[in-house]
Design a protein that fits this description.
The protein has about 300 residues and is of the alpha/beta class. The chain is built from seven helices and nine strands; from the N terminus they run βαβαβαβααβββαβαβ. α1 packs across α5 and α6 packs across α7. The two termini are about 35 Å apart. The C terminus is likely disordered.
């Protein structure tokens, strides 16, 4: 699903000359058209602003204003920022300005790619741009198993300040799928120092459910799959009870009769679980279970008492 491009601008913080930047942009526009993206006439030669990294905020603001003027003052779609190298500090600053101050997607490219002007590189960048504009690049040929009913997938985690820090807040992040393909909506909230429970989950889930409803043309998910990361084993029951309750409150606020089925999955990376094939022929040379198993030869057995269904 390609998204038409009507308004964008370029900020050149690198060493490329104006003619090299124009050639790179023309190559990028050609790759967009080849990928099926309709590029409106005024967007085929976007305004270009040149400057130094120390002036990046002013340059990006000017570029965003110029891109907006291309379409009568409406919200522009994208900023293309050319950097001299892949240095991280400047990248983080560019993303902070574009995401939190301008509220615009940005695409960074570094000088060596501008100089080479490679077609394959341009095609790869176009995929990123289309996704940032809201398009879909890839879909599954067949629906996922058991996804016959409208299903919404959540992912959530809480990041805590480093050890020894006694005042910084923890950061809760939640994402939710907006369709059956690849669109996700995300939100972050600051909360109490080292608090593991997501304090605003009810409001975050409600906002994402409403967005899912709008994105799917008035469909509410019949099933919720909620992946929760970052929970220690001693907090499993407490986190599950609190956050599932918050989810159910969000359902009722959306519609008093709305009660989708919920699968709440706590995901752990730091554990000591090891899986072994029950039969030697079902393992590789190192003893690891094969990726695909015959129904007659399960990799491991799970007792019903080990599974909780909400």
């Amino acid at each position: 699903t390609p998204i038409p491009l009507s308004s964008w601008a370029v900020v050149n913080l690198g060493r490329a000359r104006d003619d090299q930047v124009h050639r790179f942009v023309e190559n990028l526009v050609g790759a967009m058209i080849a990928a099926g993206i309709f590029v409106e006439r005024q967007a085929q030669r976007p305004p270009i602003f040149r400057g130094q990294m120390r002036d990046v905020q002013a340059l990006m603001t000017q570029a965003a204003r110029a891109a907006s003027e291309m379409i009568g003052g409406r919200r522009p779609q994208l900023l293309l920022v050319l950097k001299p190298d892949a240095e991280q500090a400047s990248y983080f600053m560019i993303k902070r300005i574009s995401d939190t101050e301008l509220g615009l997607p940005s695409q960074c490219c570094i000088d060596k790619h501008v100089f080479k002007c490679n077609r394959q590189y341009a095609a790869n960048v176009v995929l990123k741009i289309n996704a940032k504009l809201g398009g879909v690049n890839l879909t599954l040929v067949d629906d996922l198993p058991k996804f016959e009913q409208p299903t919404m997938i959540f992912g959530a985690d809480v990041t805590h300040p480093p050890a020894g820090e006694k005042s910084q807040p923890s950061i809760a992040a939640v994402v939710g799928s907006m369709d059956r393909y690849a669109r996700y909506s995300g939100a972050i909230r600051m909360q109490g120092h080292r608090v593991e429970i997501i304090a605003d989950l009810e409001l975050l889930a409600l906002a994402m459910l409403k967005q899912f409803y709008r994105s799917t043309g008035g469909v509410k998910p019949a099933r919720i799959i909620f992946y929760r990361d970052g929970v220690s084993e001693g907090q499993f029951k407490h986190v599950m009870a609190q956050e599932v309750t918050a989810l159910r409150r969000a359902f009722k606020r959306l519609d008093a009769s709305y009660a989708p089925r919920v699968t709440f999955i706590i995901v752990q990376k730091r554990h000591h679980t090891r899986f072994f094939a029950m039969n030697r022929q079902d393992s590789d040379r190192s003893g690891n279970p094969l990726r695909e198993q015959s129904p007659k030869h399960p990799v491991f057995a799970v007792q019903p008492s080990q599974i909780s269904c909400l």
